[in-house]
Amino acid sequence: MLTFTLRRLLLAVPVLLGVVFVVMLTVDLLPGDAVTLMLGEHATKDAVAALREHLGLDKPFVVRYLDYVGHLLRGDLGRSMQQNRPVAAELADAWPATLQLTVAALVIAAAVGIAAGVVSAVWPNSLFDAVARLASLFGLSMPIFWTGLVLIVVFSLWLNWLPVGGAGSFAHLVLPAVTLALPSVAMVARMTRAAVLDVLREDYVRTARAKGVGEVWVLGKHALRNAFIPILTLLGLQSGQLMGGAVLTETVFSWPGLGRLMVKAIFARDYVLLQGAVLVFALAFVVVNLLVDLSYGALDPRIARQG
Amino acid sequence: MRTLVSRLAVALLGLALVAALAAPVSAQKRGGTLTIVRPTDPVSLEPNLETTAPGAWVYFNMLEGLLTLDEKMQIKPVLATSYEVMSPTKVRFKLRPGVKFHDGTPFNAAAVKFTYDRALHGTPPARWASLAGSLAGAEVVDDLTVDILTREPYGPILRTLAMYCMGIVSPAAVQRLGADFSRAPVGTGPFKFVEWKTNTHVIIERHADYWGDKALVDRVIFKVVPEEGARMIALQTGDADMVLFPSPAQLPALRRDSKYTVHETTGIRVVFVGMHAGLPPLDDVRVRQALLHAVDRQAILDNIMEGSAGPARGVLAPGVFGYKDMQLDSVYPFDRARARALLGKAGFTPGPDGIMQKGGQRLSLSWIAARGRYPKDAEITEAVQAMFKDVGVEAKAQFLEWGTVFPQLRGNPLNHHLFTLGWVTSNADADYSLFALFHSKQVPPAGWNTSRYENPRLDTLVERARRSLNQTEREKLYGEAQDILAKEMVWIPVYTTKEIIVTRAAVKGFGIHPVEYNLALWKTWLDK
Questions:
Q1: Buried b (16+ CB within 10 A) or exposed e, B262-277
Q2: What is the distance in angstroms between the Cα of A18 and the nearest Cα belonging to chain B?
């Protein structure tokens, strides 16, 4: 188990370096450069050259990459080109907000999605099932941008229950977390329904029922535990989706997280800041995947033995 | 008895009326928090790192320069009390006595020198260094006297010093805070810094020891709300008192609604269709004039800009020093017959496909434009393209990303006849436009003479105006320069931008400024 974890973490290093390379190359290939954007169109040629040199942008791409990686390996994320502030400080300001939002959305997605999925599976083709399936189709199809604005109009403008945006209290978290969770709730509900329905048709479930085991026990002990592996995989994938979706949600709800930091960095072609933000996302991905893999073993001892 | 009562009643009524009329004047209230929503967080809160609006809106209220431009674009003294031109490259300023920075240290000539040295000779220099033209630095004469030096005789020096980004900073605070100064600046202004939470808000509060009229509100909170729809809802729910960058589509409704006030004024950016004066057939002035007659500029203002922009009467915006009304609407009225006649004089005749031609060559022009760089730039390009077609001129427009258009315009040679562009006269002095855009030495890659316009007479005029420190003389020279441009027309000016800010009706005393960055909040008060 420990060697497995260590091996996976070591494997993450080349992944992260690759991510850094791709991000840096992409920013390099984008038209427009950081210095022109910072100094404006009216800047003199000398001013542009001086700032390029100061930021090291006059060096070739490979040198800049190796430079960055060298600093990174020493734990130095550099300074934001535009703001001249340590990237670590910028990230420290932003990542707790994104973590809070993503975790809240994941909890909503898991709780509501699994509950709805199980009820639908137990009473398939019931009225609840029909409504849940329709609602989940809706949840999957609506873009976050639109749902977010509709929720703001209803709960902030009309009902005046919740703030329009910003962060700071639980009330601020409700709308963005729900908006972000909606597509995931739908996915989880559909997956849970299918997985539980599958398991309920298995022989061991029939055996358990034949033994006279109560329906609740059948569902909890036999069905859900086995249906949980695909659901968990999905939740792992969804947490990645949620982090990605956070970019839009954070924009609609003025939530001060990593997604907005990234958008800001892209518009300024500030690759140092962008790298830092992307690294946090990439690292989160690696960790979530690892956690999912580890939990397979906990759910199913056969997988643990193989690992 | 009865008449006495009624007379008394009338008198009382009269008194009440007088009182009612007088009330709004005396009701100016102090206190409260003004909440402002705008789309983006500042880059920084000090001008050396930030010249764009999100930061300037905040620091303009905390840092003061020697001079400023008021809402009528007139120069007003702030930290300076008077000035005297000592030589063509030296202007001496008397400084306001008894002024203290927010940290309690005294404002003096050394602080002025410190600010400019740090900005102009730092590594790298301040982001505004390119805007400051010939400004070379400052010399301390005595504690309250300072000489401002330029590298060459530089007429725009006063308006340069009055720019929003020329605020004097506290040397003690810069030394104490180091790099963190850019997140917590210390100046002499009517507001002082309280807190900046990245991507959430910046808070500033009234500086109680301010040397002049103290700010009326206790605090100002600048919130970041990136989504336009959410900004407008925040205004409606009362979460915000003021919206910067309001949604243009909602303006007509907001103008009618008494719960809100729409503040608007003509800005200092002119958006235009530029013509390459060196590329045939546009090297013929008659063809260029014909194109001006072909464009119905009023229709563009009415139907595309829908009240969000003002007319362009010349190559400069009205607030700019040296502006002269070029009377384009009467000199070059929308008149297709005149356009065709001018093209005829230039030797063009209608071809079989309706496009004019000369010697078998169709009158076909190539055009580059960006989409979304300036308000409605692509839409106006398409509209003008259609208007050209009505007089037999074909224009082939290419829409590219601004990042791709920019290097082409600033490169040499330019292989397009036309381009859609906007220009802000950043220091509000005609030099910044007439010299940079039309002097023959400013042809790219050296400068921004994207029309490749060359005229020795104009060169002489704008050079003389640049080197003179006599503002009356300068104004006259710029007038002559604009007279030449009005005849030669290498642009089709389309519109002048408008600055628009919406507040709730309870926000009083706010005056919108033609320069977007000059968001002055110290006279603003809340009637609630």
A1: bbbbbbbbbbbbbbbb
A2: 27
